[in-house]
């Protein structure tokens, strides 16, 4: 599958009419764009765009989506994060920290971490490559079935996170995550995001002390995965306009290349739903990156902030 990067005209068309945007948003999506947003790299054989024919979702097509897109309304603005199974693992990400990032990114929503629950007996599982894997559909069903136990007047979305491996259907080896957009639920596994996952056995991983370098890589990947996947539940489809948080990823190389920020087109989509103050969002996100040692993203957000003042 060959991928042709969109031209500047096609990107302008995808952005659409900017005249009604607040000034800071206009600056965020027009000022010094080439300095801050990289083009999508030409895909290699194993990359997402070499295997998937993505057309790109314009602002207009995003606006026209009627279902399958979360829109906070009335009291419904809470994103519940439901941990499933044990997080007692030396390489489990700090969920409270990831929630802090989601709170800022999905500005105007409430993000609430629920108490951890166990896998239930009726969740389908299998043994694959020496580890237990759970079927994503079973986890989706669980989140739908237990909705009445959460605050249904406040719920906008509910996503399960787990350190267990997951698979979407019998003929797939695994999946990082899967959403059921119409029902506002999703499930994401962090287990494959550790830099040692493909390089050591489960026992070796448990015995290897976590270095600062690996802590940062893990945290960055977990944050990106959760923001990207919740982005899908807000109706954002895969992006082809720039290197962007919403690019599809197939492997670790693509995952680490993917930035933790939205490109101008995707930023406009999320803004049209959440109406956030972009200056405040960038400032608070930069501070959080600084607090947890995510230096590259911290300096990107600080640089952009200077360009939208
Ligand atoms: Zn995706
Ligand atoms: Zn994008």
UniProtKB/TrEMBL annotation:
<dbReference type="GO" id="GO:0006508">
    <property type="term" value="P:proteolysis"/>
</dbReference>
<keyword id="KW-0378">Hydrolase</keyword>
<dbReference type="InterPro" id="IPR012962">
    <property type="entry name" value="Pept_M54_archaemetzincn"/>
</dbReference>
<dbReference type="GO" id="GO:0046872">
    <property type="term" value="F:metal ion binding"/>
</dbReference>
<keyword id="KW-0482">Metalloprotease</keyword>
<dbReference type="InterPro" id="IPR024079">
    <property type="entry name" value="MetalloPept_cat_dom_sf"/>
</dbReference>
<keyword id="KW-0645">Protease</keyword>
<dbReference type="Pfam" id="PF07998">
    <property type="entry name" value="Peptidase_M54"/>
</dbReference>
<protein>
    <recommendedName>
        <fullName>Archaemetzincin-2</fullName>
    </recommendedName>
</protein>
<dbReference type="GO" id="GO:0008237">
    <property type="term" value="F:metallopeptidase activity"/>
</dbReference>
<keyword id="KW-0862">Zinc</keyword>
<keyword id="KW-0479">Metal-binding</keyword>
